[in-house]
Amino acid sequence: IQNATVQQSGGGFYASDEVVIDEMSSVSISSSRSEKAGGGFHTNGRLQVTNNSVVSLENVTAQNHGGGFYALGDVEIAGHSTVNISNSHAESGDGGGFDTEKGLKVSNCSRLIIRNATAGNYGGGFYAKGKTLISRSTVIIQNATAQQHGGGFCAADEVVIDEMSSVSISSSRSETNGGGFHTDRRLQVTNSSVVSLQNVTA
Questions:
Q1: Contact call for residues 169 and 196 (beta carbons, < 8 A)
Q2: 138 pLDDT band (50/70/90 cuts)?
Q3: What confidence tens digit (pLDDT) does each residue in 63-110 have?
Q4: Radius of gyration (Cα) for the chain, nearest Å?
Q5: How far apart are the first and last CA of the chain?
Q6: Pseudo-torsion of CA 138, 143, 149, 155, nearest 10°?
Q7: Where are the beta strands (DSSP E) in 91-202?
Q8: Which of 14, 52, 106, 122 is deepest in the core (most CB within 10 A)?
């Protein structure tokens, strides 16, 4: 999907139920805009990217929440899958890369990569309202900025980084708290996992 614009939510597409991208599928959305939420897409349910699937969002903008996408349900990236978001902006809302109103789970050798993302409110890279769990996976966030908390990401619930996972945030900034990231609850980094923060400012 290329060069799509909508006055409501979901620049590339809008799903009233869950979105499942499975079995080596590929979804690519570029140069799309929503005047509300979800510059790339919007789902009223959960988003599941599994079994070697790939989601690529590039040059996507939402006037409100979720520059790349906005999910009212949980977001799960699993089974060697990749979500790659670049040049993504939530102009006045949360989640420059994406916003999930529930939890985020990245597991089983999957990758979440966000580059050049901005949020007018919380979470330059992403905003997660529920628990954030990263297990046996990699998260890379570069050049992310938030006007409120969490330059790289903002989590309203606990953040668990487990099972040899790697989280790397670089060149990110918050105008208030947490240049790299902000969590309202506990942070747990366990079982040979690594968190790396470089050139981050609040």
A1: yes
A2: very high
A3: 999 999 999 999 999 999 999 999 999 999 999 999 999 999 999 999
A4: 15
A5: 36
A6: -20
A7: 98-100, 104-107, 111-119, 126-128, 132-135, 138-146, 153-155, 159-162, 166-174, 181-183, 187-189, 194-201
A8: 122
> Helix-strand-coil percent breakdown of the chain, rounded to 5?
0, 55, 45
Using 50, 70 and 90 to split pLDDT, how confident is the model at 201?
A: very high
Render pLDDT for 173-195 as a digit per residue (tens, 0 to 9): 999 999 999 999 999 999 999 99
Q: How many CB atoms lie within 10 A of CB 77?
A: 26
HSE of 163, CA atoms in CB hemisphere, 13 A? 11
**Burial 8-23, CB ≥16 within 10 A → b, else e:** ebbbbbbbeeebbbee
